[in-house]
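Record pair follows.
FIRST:
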Amino acid sequence: VFSSFHTAFKVSFHIDKQQQSKDSVFFRDGVRRIDFVLSYDDDKDGERKQERRKVYEANLEKVGLELETEDKSESEDGKTYFVKVHAPWEVLATYADVLKIKVPFKVNDIPDNSEMPMNWLSTPFRLPEHVMHPEPDFFTAPFNKSKSDFFLIDNKDTFFPPSTRNRIVYYILSRCSYFRDECAEKDKKGIKRLLNNGTYTAAFPLHDSRYWIRSRDDKCESERYNLYKHWARFLCFFKEQPLNLVRKYYGEKIGIYFAWLGFYTEMLLFAAVVGTICFIYGFLTYGDNQWSEEICSDKIGGNIVMCPLCDKKCSYWKLNTTCNSSWQSHLFDNVGTVFFAIFMGIWVTLFLEFWKRRQARLEYEWDLVDFEEEQQQLQLRPEYETKCTNRKMNRITQEMEPYLPITSKCARSCLSGATVLLWISLIIACIIGVIAYRLAVYAAFASIMKDSPTAHLEVVGPYITPQLATSVTASCINFVIIMILNLMYERVAVWITDMEIPKTHLEYENKLTVKMFLFQFVNYYSSCFYVAFFKGKFVGYPGKYAYMFGWSQLRNEECDPGGCLIELTTQLVIVMTGKQVWGNIQEALVPWLMNWWGSRKARNHPESLYSRWEQDHDLQGFGQLGLFYEYLEMVIQFGFITLFVASFPLAPLLALINNIIEVRVDAWKLTTQFRRPVAAKAHSIGAWAEILNGMAVLSVVTNAFIVAFTSDMIPRLVYMYAYAPKGEMTMKGYINNSLSVFNISEFPEFSRYRDYRYPPGHEKQYSHTMQFWHILAAKLAFIIIMEHVVFIVKFLVAWLIPDVPADVRARVKRERYLVQEYLHNYEVEKLKIQLSQNSSECNCTPMIYPSLSKHEVLSECL
């Protein structure tokens, strides 16, 4: 009995100790913090992988890292080994010096005058002070190990935050060799290669706690819990984001993304309000739409017979069948459209300029002012170092570094460019294929749905149903093509970017960003560009229609009866809304299902035995391209609300609603569904800024052309001011004026079609009338005037708004001045101490030099 009791006591003690250690983020001793975790399965590994791990871990210990291995018998699944990595102070200090990590040396003494007037209005939207600003503001300087006493080091264990610690450890892991003879195998290094060849199954830093409960360890911060409670829950959608905590926990790169997304969402509020007002204006002027009244009238629209919309298989139809689409078109095609197009051209400039100011403030607050130069010089990609065998002197650092010969660089760039052009051509070919499908299938549907020879004059007619069937099937095919090509885009873009061997991580991401955006731009916007600028523009006229590629079966499409603008609006709403809804569902549902499936076995065990590293191991990896797709999604949305916003003023409102959800969905999945990403620095949104600038300029041009050529606004204004009856400024008679005449034998009267051409019997029959040229001149004049007005305002606004706020410039100068002053005083004090120590050993005394001061005597002694 005593023996059984003693055994039970030992087992109970062991379980309590196991629970305590496994629920924390420390080694078994409870002192050394786990900065990184490596995992592997040893059951089916060969000797080669075991040797790699043995050498790699031995080399990690040589550089000063401390390792602790959890045997597979201690793991929940019974087959996974976990190697816990800890970086002691000496390693952290050494690499903080190498990476020039900025750390505090003095409390900021500049008064904060950033408080806005009537700040109490924003109180309901603010988070508690301890969440937003958990630490005081400091002046910072690059860490120098030899001057460690210069910095404010209260506790060496907590001086470097966990995000900085895991960034330093990952830097070491990425450059540590796993081959005994490093000179013989230069490319045998880095954790990425070990993950790719299956030596390790995962490598990740730990979350500091569970997201739904605080850590049981008093030494742990539980920042993940705070992020979930105050940021990731949807009920916090009206609250500001705790960006400082996001930056502290995930690093500057993720912090800058959420700062940009939040700022973009805030600016969308103004665009959404103005767009909604323009839509309401169209709704309130619904009854003043005289041309729609004429279309719907039985006396006017009911007596106008229109030419068939396809050859042979399509019938004639009456104009009043387009009554509903004409009324709907007025909601978006009105005078407010012109105003909103001009407003959005100015809004996008304000958005980009104010973001530059916001970004400059974050750069200062997050110690990123001089980061780009440091990154370009110091943080080379491990792949670049291993693949570039040639070396040359760096003129800045005066050190030998690897480089890629110019001939190899040009050859790789040419091959990359050719591949990009090939894939863009493939996308365009697919779009052309879909257009050809629409042209061919429309006639087939029209033929199938034609009931009788008399159906060509009935209101139900062969137009609406075949058009709807064609649009639905073509949209489904286009969606399938987009999804298939999207799956291939990533692999191709990553492959050609890897082939170029970029020098730094920033350069790699910028190159990949440009390639992926070009693909997505062509993929998502091609159909909108086709409807806006090509459909209905090259139709010809009865008896001389234009055909695609000259094929008699593929007659070029005409616009919808309500005009091309309403079709562009419809397509924009479907593509934009569908993409956003599907994207949010996919972002939230897919990682949750994968995590549920991966951790289903662990749910049968007590959570206290389900260790911190095992919990994180069962989560999804954030991946190298995690933020890339988030940016890409938002930039594609930005294109929808800027490039084609003249056709749909409610687009900013839909984007605003989506982004309010997007912020919380991204925060939720990052906090609860993904492993903690390796902290990374970024001083800006990278190449996305240039892409946004380019789209801002292009949006002015596209909206001007949409108003001029896709909308009917200019023809109506020309008619009202120049061709209205008896000089009256009225739209009465516009419909009859805008339709040309064609002589047919089936009816005693003429059929009509949309164009400005002379009627049969005229000496210039079927040639363009003078009104056509007047309208064309008015369209071109409108484009020139609108572009010049918007661009002048854009450049004026950009010139008036400085990129860096005045107070930030002053703070940067103040900090640089203090760094120099404090370093000078530090060196002087250090010299005094040295002189005092040397004076006790010096044989020289003031008696020998009676005319010299004590300081001069010490100088003479030295």
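SECOND:
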Amino acid sequence: MPAPKRQLQALRIREAIKLDGVLDEAVWQQAPIATDFIQQRPNPGVPEKNKTEVRVLYDDAALYVGAIMHDSSPDSILREITQRDQFGNTDIFSVFLDTYHDQLNGYNFTVTTSGVQLDGRYSPAGGEDFNWNAVWDARTSQRGTDWIAEMRIPYSAIRFSNAPEQLWGLNFARQRKRDNAQFFWNEVKPAVNGFVNQWGDLRGVRDIKPPLRLSLTPYISAYVNHNPLNAADTRRTTTSFNGGADIKWGINESFTLDATLVPDFGQVQSDNQVLNLSPFEVQFNENRQFFTEGTELFNKGNLFYSRRVGATPVGFYNVGLGAKEKVVRNPAETRLLNATKVSGRTSKGLGVGLFNAVSSEMYATVRHEETGADRRVLTQPLSNYSIFVLDQSLKNNSYVSLINTNVTRAGSTYDANVTGGLFRFANKKNAYAVDGSLIYSRRRGTAFGTEKSIDDRDGYKYTLGVGKISGNFTWSVNHRIESATYNPNDLGILFGNNNITQTVDLAYRKYKPFWKVNNMAFFWEIGHSLLYQPTRYQNFYVYHGFNTTFTKSFLQVGYDFDTNPTSYDFYEPRVVPLGRYVVRVPGNTGIVLFLNSDTRKKLSYGINAGNRTYALDGRLPRPRRFNYSFGFYPRYRVNDHLTFRYSLDWSLAQNQIGYVNGGLSDDEPLDQPFKGQIVLGRRDVATVANVVSVAYTFNNRMSFTLRTRHYTSNVRYADFSTLAPNGDEQLADYRRNRDNTYNAFNVDAVYAWWFAPGSQVSVVWKNAGYTSLLAEEATPQFFNNFNNTINTPHNNSLSVKVLYYLDYLTFKRQK
């Protein structure tokens, strides 16, 4: 059962508060105190020994929070300085607000001992989302054995109703890093499902009005780019200047409009490029701030993959060339003209979200080699992307939602629409829940650049699950179907449709310390999948996982284990419709062991090692398959300002069976005499990724980071075979050399200075180089690949960007 709800009265003030981290105004002593925090980890339910005292004040413009964290000695207060929104080896204090008291959605405002600010949002769809950023302020100080936090949270940073008297959900948290302990004012029990539903209440906030939330953040940026790989008759060094703005407007007390006009995302971190041998696309992280903050409503149902907006043009790889023509310019990213979000939640718990983005037409430039005449080839039509969401919060940590995504393209290409309904109902005790979804997808039109109708049209997906969600022992039973024509990939991402999947999940967690460990968790899952159309067996597996953390050393150890009988892979042959061809995968068993050391130490590390062994396949005289993996992630903190990190990921797949070439249609280029056949190859794939990064934080407003990544993947083929529809293989005299090596090298150096709330100067240097060596040029030697990559001409970009936050309320107060 959740703990009883505590209550705290806020005190209205008339005098000004100086934000200095001292709490020396007399009014602080008049406010009621929130104290007697309760430990949530590592020993849930234990009262804190070092007292915490928190007071809340408010006026017509902001909420003020003052906190005193008592400690045993000055050196017990850890204070590593990090970048904004990053946790470190430091104590922290947090304020949590549920301004609509729906016990589902909330805000987090956190400050570290060094004054570094972190903020985030909580929602059923996004969980804890620290990509959300607000403009607020905090100051900290240390007085003997105490450290003090003073916060000012303007009403423009949050949303609340227009009621005469507010009732908000409230909680406070304190992390005492010396003991790796976290405490909450209103007890948060780890065995109880949910977080926002375990907060207390803030009362006494009366006669405040949601302010006019209107801000403009204009930017200017300048780039110098040098690409030595450009064609000889084009400019190798180019410059560009950009300008635009972000606008935030509070339409009313509940809803806010966010818009970005002529956005510039050139300074975001480089993608981790990889060699992709799978039948599915690579999913990249979203690093563009506009698409990461305030998107919890749009992520309902996992139907929105924001990298679709501004992605590679649909015709990038298929520029039609005539005789003696070559491509001299072909932009790899679609230019985004604007993007807009409207979102909010009413006092009745109805969340509404509207997203819209427009990308411009993109063209490749083609030049005739003899005449020098240029012509433009359309690679991306003018496109509109939109999402509409309704999300009704219900009692008992429950909700129902409706979401629609739509992509409309100009011209004679296809459009796409996806509509889904979602629900979750929990019982009054928050012990059991049922959830599910029903989603419909529709695509209409012709493939880009052709007159051929797209293959997949109407499709659907539904899920249904029921389970025990609270307590030490939890379980769930889940069922999912994706039809053969279900396709949300125009604005979402799905790696494989045409599936029927059933799973049973079990978990047992021991939260309280015993013997020599702080906690312990066991996980089990049994899964079974079928191909939906035609109905054919795909896979059956059993999974078991375990992890625990030791009491004194805080060393975390664990493992993941799974076993599978023979599986059938209908995707690897790359044949549509599915079910016509299959690759049989022999029974296999895998295990991964991992260990993570105490992050409080100057030198900490993580290690994992894995192995997967396959049964012998009697169809062909081939050796046994093995997969090996190893990861090593040390981090050395020189002092509270300087930290070095390194990560090594190594994997080796021996005797892997994978697609090489093939197809069944006459318009696909194939190697004679294998036309009309699918060719598989037995190969070894060795992959190494190294990342070295250094972060130096000058103060809580200024930082410098350097990240260098080298990735190499080597593929060596041993023999080849042709594939029959039933999964049988026949060794083939296939003589093309398919060996290859892929290398990627990136440097991202970023200097960032938050010179005022919401305002920043950033200087970014990016260096990128890629090589793909085929056949005889490929080499398995790591250092040879590294040297080749370093010595290959790289693209270099240096940019400066300045953005300045302008708030209407600030100008109004200055008049």
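COMMENT: Confidence is low (pLDDT under 50) at residues 664-668.
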